[in-house]
Amino acid sequence: MTNILETNDLTVTFGGLNACDHVDLAVPTGKFVGLIGPNGAGKTTFIDAITGYVPTSDGNAVFDGNDIGELKPHERAQSGLVRTFQSLELFEDLTVRDNLLVAAYPTRWYTFIADMFHLSRQDKEIEERVNWALNIMGLNDVSDSMPTDLSHGRRKLVGVARALAAKPKLILLDEPAAGLDTAESQTLGGHLREFLNHDMSVFLIDHDMGLVLSVCDFIYVLDFGKIIASGTPTEIRESAAVKAAYLGEEAGEIQVQEGERMRSQQHESGEDND
Amino acid sequence: MSAFLVALIAGIGAGALYAMLGSGIVVAFRGSGVINFGHGAVAGYTAYSFDELRESGSLYLPWFDPIPEFGFLQTLRINNLPVRIDIFDNVTLAEKPNLAITFIICLLMSAFLGLLMHFLVFRPLRNSPTLGKVIGSIGVFLYLSSMCAVHFGGQNRYDEGFTGFNSTSGAVKNFLGLGGTIPRSNFWLFGAAIVMCVAVWALYRYSRFGIATRAADENEKGAALLGYSPQFLAGANWVLASVTAGVAGILFLHKTQPAQIALFVVGGLGAALFGNLTSIPGATMGGLIIGMIASGGVELTTNSWWPEIIPGDGVRNFMPLLIIILVLYFRGDKLPIRGSISIGRQPRAPTSTNVIIGAIAALGIGLLLSNIFVSKWEAVLTTTIIAIVFMYSLTVLIGFLGQISLVQWTISGLAAYVMIRLMADGTKIRETDFVTNTGWGWPTVLAFIAAIAVAVIFGLLVGLPALRIRGVQLAVVTIAAVIAVESLLLRNPPLMGDGSVSVNPTPSPNWFGQYVGGFNPNTARTDYWKFSLFIIIIAGLIGVGVANLRRGQIGRRFLAIRANERAAAAAGINVANMKLLGFGISSGIAAIAGCMLAYKLPGLQTDQFEIFGGLALLAFAYLGGITTVWGAIVGGCLIAGGLLPEFLGVHFESVDTGLINAVGAIGLVVNAKVTNGEGVALLQTDLAKNTLAALRREPDETEEAEENSNNDTEEVTA
Ligand SMILES: Nc1ncnc2c1ncn2[C@@H]1O[C@H](COP(=O)(O)OP(=O)(O)OP(=O)(O)O)[C@@H](O)[C@H]1O
Ligand SMILES: [Mg+2]
Question: Would you state the CATH architecture of domain B2-66+74-334?
Answer without folding.
Answer: Orthogonal Bundle (1.10)
